[in-house]
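REQUEST ID: PR-0412
SUBMITTED BY: lab tech R.K.
PRIORITY: routine
TASK: structure prediction, single protein chain
INPUT:
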Amino acid sequence: MTFSIAAMDPLTRALGVAVTTKYLAVGSLCPFVQAGVGAIATQAAVNPSFGPRGLRLLAEGLTPEQTMRVLLEGDDGRAHRQLSVVSAHAQSVSFTGAETVPWSGHRTGEGYAVAGNMLVGEETVAAAEAAFLGSEGQSLPERLLRTIEAGQAAGGDKRGRQSAAIVVYTTEEYPYLDFRVDDHPEPVAELRRIYELSKSEYLRWKEYMPSRMHPGGRPRPERGGADAGGRAAPP
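STATUS: complete
OUTPUT:
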């Protein structure tokens, strides 16, 4: 009932997940990301505990393959699960349980894992993978969005559309992006609209927020003023 991509950017080391489904608020259950550690998408008969537990295992030094083995071995419902794990070292692995609803399957490569279940057909995952590989050189958020847009255009969830989400972490403990569309007739298009809207102020002003390199935040224009590019300062 879902298709997703978990990926990392080899240039910036950013990690992220984008996902969409015919189910309410997929962003609350499927995507899990931690800066410098990894990205996990858990879906089908979703086991949300795979996210935080998997990230802890990756942080302890396990590979994605080892992490997946530990998670699945302790889960009696694994035949109904689908899981993708990508590490900060560009290792990737996916699992599709034998009892997931067809069409279901996955594709993986260096730094990415695309997976889906209850889809109209394999073309959804194939188109999503092609979009990710074909967008090399773009930012990770852009690549993730293009991936689920292509999957949606190729058919997507055979039941329809309802929610979508994108989560991206860069160098900080807080997310660079964490946008959700919980209930919408065109959730992927709405997620794209929100992302494009964020470019005007939201993302530009993040460079002034406290970070590991600048614990107190970089100097910013006076409140109510404008930055060097003429953009209004946030309230």
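NOTES: The chain has six helices and ten strands.
REVIEWED BY: pending
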